[in-house]
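agent> call fold_tool(seq_1)
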Amino acid sequence: MRDRAWVLSIALAVLVADQVTKLIVIASMDIHASIPVIDGFLALTHVRNSGAAFGLFSGAPAGPVRAGLIIVSVLAVVLIWAYAREGWHEPRIVVAFGMILGGALGNLVDRLRLHEVVDFIDVYWGKYHWPSFNVADTAITIGAMTLFIAMARHNETEEPAPALAEASDDTVGDAPAREPSAKEQPAEDVAGTS
């Protein structure tokens, strides 16, 4: 129960941070306006994404893409909540679930409210630009990487299965070896017993 409370608290914090930063961008910047933060590397640029993450499917018809992305977002929220209910007690996994859930909810709110997602973090090097993203995308990415690392380490530290004890001629483990059936005995042994 406590793990779910933490997941919800972290998700709520991510959701609030995501929506507040998007509201600030919407209120203070025109679409496609840009404010340099680190010259030649980072800028705040107000863009809208009607497609999936990193602009995927942005050229496709808006209605079906939007409906599909809403369905996928709702399914992601349900799956994350279902996993969180299983009671992962490792703090990294709880934080990861909270970040992914909060990010998924942040972008879902945009899709339901605006029919597109507000992106504003623009990372670039010279003429090469990484697709713009937002706080929700950042939380999802960090949460997914944290979850992957935590689960990989969990699998590495699991105790290996104990090796089977070597069986002696008379026993397998603590059980006596069974006698071979008539079908398994060599023909001369069967003939000798008749």
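agent> call fold_tool(seq_2)
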Amino acid sequence: MTFQFTLTSRRIIGLLGALNIVLVVALLFSAVGPALAKGGTPPDPVPPSVGTDVPLSYFGPMPSEVQKELVGPVKLLRAGDFDQAAGTVTLPLYRGQMKDGRAVWYILTDTDDRANADALGLNFSGKLSYAAVDGGARVARLQKDNSLTFESGTVDFSPVRELVPGDAPTPFPPKTAKPGSVGDKDYTPIVRIENSGNHIYNAPVVAFGVEAKDITFCDGNVDYGRVHDRVVKICPGANGGGTVTLKTTPIFSFAKPAFYISTDASDPVPATLDEGTLAPALANIKVGSDDSAFSAIERLFVTVNGPVGKDNPQRQGLFSALTDKTDKGTPAPPLHVIGGIPTVSLDYSPLWDLNLGEWTKEAIDKGYRSRVIDEFQYLELVQQGSITGPGGKKFGSTGIIVNCPIIFRAR
């Protein structure tokens, strides 16, 4: 395990004291909390007709249907078909190749090409332009048949994912964390198309070195020795004509519940925890600079020792994810906090700089520990000393990058 802790600076904005925010959050999310505590998805918004004599038909659409920045659900990755009840997203499946002809099956989620983002329904991320430095992005060339030929970067999907929590009462860090897919030293999901505008795309690989017949699992029953561990179904077709369905995970951005897919990480521990691919070359991208000029990343706030308990509406963090189970018997999602996502902020990037926080014993003893769902709420708790880096170290970047494209904003 290669978690490292260094201090990163950013202005701390706190319009309300952290404890006041916690109280407001508890009130606003009293209905959402139980669903997420059990590993479910946020429920649909409560009908505005509740408590009135006016029929529901009187009311208009959710504000987000008129202006996506306003309150209400928003489909962010429009290229995909998001199923909130199932917690999955179905995306076009693309086929490319290495120079030697080996097949590369991948998806597209984000790009720094705004026009093509709009045209293809991808997330726009201007920050991706700054990922192509010192091996942070690999190179591809567009062919006449519209396929991509990749110069480098392979992925082995044959390993079996293995995760063994640490002994109680501290299940994190895990005793064993072996990801189910491992890229070589040159693999990164970030791709620069050198002969077509030099635009950058987020193109995570979901299968490698196999033909369509080897990964045709249109009805499920997927062989994870051949495909990404988040794949639920995969149905190859002509380039861009097939589909792949992947599991999503709930998360919070500025008090708004959202969903993402975690596809890759630069470190084996988060890659294993998130059922992703170990992508060593992501480590070439600079971390710790957040929203400064030419930064490719945004911040991800991961709590080690948040509240636990399957039915606890305040449940959050790695201890919970490693010990609590959903009603379906699957690991409960950790419910992390992230910075800006599309429609909420201007600084979205799918490349998240992992900041690892731990509630102090003093804060726990005083009853401060609760679910945190807003970046500035989190930073306020850091500033006042209730959350530190693990073991009381300074809070900041671990040096780890995770690739988590945003799919859907639920509020």
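agent> summarizing second result for user.
The chain has one domain: 18-44+65-409. The longest strand covers residues 88-98.
agent> awaiting next instruction.
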